[in-house]
Amino acid sequence: MNHHSYQEIRYGYQSLKLTFEYIIKNKEWIYAIFLDRNDIVFLGCGASYWASVSGAAIMQKKLGKKITLLKAADVVMSEDNYKYLYDAPLFIVPSRSGKSKETLLATEILKKAYPDHRVLSITMFEDNPLMNMSDVSLYLPWSEEVSVCSTRSFNNIYISVLLMAMILKGEDLSEFDKFFAMAETIYSKLDLHAADIVKKMENPQVVTLGAGVQYGAVIAGAYICVEMAQWLSSFYQTLEYRHGPIVTAKEGSWIFLSSLNEENIELENGLIGEILVQGANVVLFGRDRDLNGTINVKVPVFSEELRGSLFTTLMQMIAYHFSVKLTLNPDKPGELNRFITY
């Protein structure tokens, strides 16, 4: 397939491998930037914010301390609400372009409000202004897309934060060796699953469900359908879906559920039963065992954090194939801009 977006999604693991090597090579900078920081604050907008939703949850889980998450637009539009909150803060600011207007404005506001700050940015574009505002800038140019939508850049931000959290905690990274050894096979199978599912989708309601460290990845999975396929999609925390939104599940709906861990299987099964009764289609992700009446997209046994990234990849492939089915241009959907500078 000739679309740039297909290549960027289908072979996204290649850029993840480069990011893995880069983070390992620069881990001393990571130790240094986190040293003596009392508060850790994520700041982002767009896809980078959704990566931060999972990133903050991952760091909170692994480091055992409260991590704060801010939308750049909220800081810009309600500046006074974000003064006097943090002590010796580290602002982690992921941004594909490093040029987004509200990210730059919010970063400047927070730097002025907290003279004892540090800024760690994660960017892909060369010579971007956010890089120049940072104490440490993780620069991942191999993650930048030619196409408009954020696909492999999202996954590289997500993996960067996961790796930083694992390094800071002193965790074994051998799972990534296993992942990269199997990545081509995994991505090929995800692509086949996505293409097969899209063949069955006709004017669907698309909903993604997930929880915990995967929640930001699940949100990004819905957003890419909105952006690339220009198809309104929804996302909910897994169990929150049954508190009202489940009423919209119906024949023709496609509900994609990223399973968090074995401990929650029975709770998830109860929800799935309710959805199936209403005639909706359910696609499970991250489970070993099949469940009657559902489609189960299986992947090898990985941590719940790594599976979150793979769920986003599946939804990116769904969005791509659905876009093509609708005869749209997945590389440049509508008048969508790659980043906002006005």
Q: How would you portray this structure in words?
A:
The protein is of the alpha/beta class and 342 residues long. The chain folds into two domains: 4-169, Rossmann fold, CATH 3.40.50.10490; 174-325, Glucose-6-phosphate isomerase like protein, domain 1 (Rossmann fold), CATH 3.40.50. Helix content is 48%, strand content 15%. The chain contains twelve helices and ten strands. It has a five-stranded parallel beta sheet with strand order 2-1-3-4-5, with helices on both faces. The chain has a five-stranded parallel beta sheet with strand order 7-6-8-9-10, sandwiched between helices. Helix 6 links the parallel strand 3 (89-95) and strand 4 (118-123). Helix 4 (46-63) packs parallel to helix 8 (152-169). It is globular, with a radius of gyration of 19 Å.
At CATH level 3, the topology of the largest domain is Rossmann fold
Order of helices and strands: HHHEHEHEHEHEHHEHEEHEEH
Described by the principal axes of the CA atoms, the overall outline is globular
- Number of individual domains: 2
Main beta sheet: 5 strands, parallel
The count of β-strands is: 10
Q: Low-confidence spans: pLDDT under 50, at least 5 residues?
A: none
CATH class of the largest domain: Alpha Beta
Q: Biggest sheet, strands in spatial order?
A: 2-1-3-4-5
Could you estimate the helical fraction of the residues in percent? Answer: 40-55%
C-alpha end-to-end distance:
34 Å
Radius of gyration: 19 Å
Proportion of beta-strand residues: 15-25%
Can you identify the CATH superfamily of the largest domain? Glucose-6-phosphate isomerase like protein, domain 1
**Overall pLDDT metric:** 95
What is the structural class?
alpha/beta
Oligomeric state of the chains? single chain
Tally of alpha and pi helices: 12
Instruction: Please give the CATH architecture of the largest domain.
Output: 3-Layer(aba) Sandwich
